[in-house]
Every structure is written in structure tokens, then in C-alpha cells.
Specification:
44% of the residues lie in helices and 23% in strands. The chain contains six helices and six strands, in the order βααβββββαααα. The protein is globular.
């Protein structure tokens, strides 16, 4: 599964201006709802419910909020680079500035897990994260997110 299967260029927010975790989730829910034709409140509630189980702030300034939604046709992703880091109650207690939202159909068991693993691998790469933090150009961010692993290793 490639990141390009999860996001499109319009799903990249290059300079999101927010001041809190709640605001981040609201803005991402709004964008995701537009992309997948769902009600914004439904998406927000799914994300909030997941955060209540435990933070999706995975450390090193990265968060991967995610959830399953009944009736969703396929996996959807939204990437946001924050203008300023915000407290996301991350496991390392560091503020977050790179966020990859992932929404999956309720029935997407293994595909959801594969997508989470793929996003996690991508964002664990320090070099990739430095490049993502180094630009606020949506096209450049999309290119960095979707370049193939083979070209990244070269």
C-alpha cells in the first residue's frame, strides 16, 4: 500500500494555523469530511473517541489520528503541517507539528492496520520529517509524502 493510495494533493494542508489539539482535530475533520462526503461532526466524533482511548501523538512531533467510519468506501488520508506545534498529549510530551489523519471503512481490519504501519514507517524517517518541516508548499509536501520507498533509499 502506497501513501498515494491514501491521499491526494487536495488532502495536504501545508500551513495549518491552530492553537490546540481540539482545533487540529476539528480542522482535519472538516477537510476529511469534504474529501469523503461525510458529515464533519461524524468524523470529528470518531477522532475524539479514538483520542479518548489514548493519544495518537506518537512522539518526535508526529501524530497519526485515525478512526473507522461505517459506510466509508475506502481509506482516506489527510496530511497537515502545522504553522506552530501544539500540545497533543504525545507519548514523549513533545508538541506536534506533523499530522497524518487516517480514516478507514468500519470493515477495513487488515487494510487499516497496513495503512497505519505504512504512515508510521514514513514518519519515523527523520530525513523525511526534516524535509516535511522544511517546506510549506503543498505540492512539495505531497511529493515528499508519496515518493516511492525505492527512490527515497537511493
Amino acid at each position: 500500500m502506497d501513501i498515494a493510495d491514501l491521499i491526494s494533493p487536495v488532502a495536504v494542508i501545508p500551513n495549518l494555523r491552530v492553537t490546540s489539539k481540539k482545533q487540529v482535530l476539528q480542522e482535519l475533520a472538516r477537510r476529511a469530511a469534504e474529501l469523503c462526503g461525510l458529515r464533519e461532526r461524524l468524523v470529528f466524533d470518531v477522532l475524539l473517541e479514538r483520542e479518548r482511548l489514548g493519544t495518537t501523538g506518537v512522539g518526535s512531533g508526529i501524530a497519526i489520528p485515525h478512526g473507522k467510519i461505517p459506510g466509508l468506501e475506502r481509506l482516506y488520508g489527510v496530511f497537515a503541517r502545522l504553522e506552530r506545534p501544539v500540545n497533543f498529549e504525545s507519548i514523549d510530551e513533545q508538541p506536534v507539528d506533523l499530522i497524518f489523519l487516517l480514516l478507514a471503512p468500519e470493515t477495513a481490519g487488515a487494510d487499516h492496520l497496513k495503512a497505519l504501519a505504512r504512515v508510521s514507517r514514513l514518519l519515523r524517517d527523520k530525513g523525511t520529517c526534516e524535509k516535511l518541516r522544511g517546506t510549506d508548499n503543498a505540492e512539495a509536501l505531497y511529493a515528499l509524502l508519496t515518493e516511492s520507498p525505492a527512490s527515497r533509499a537511493a
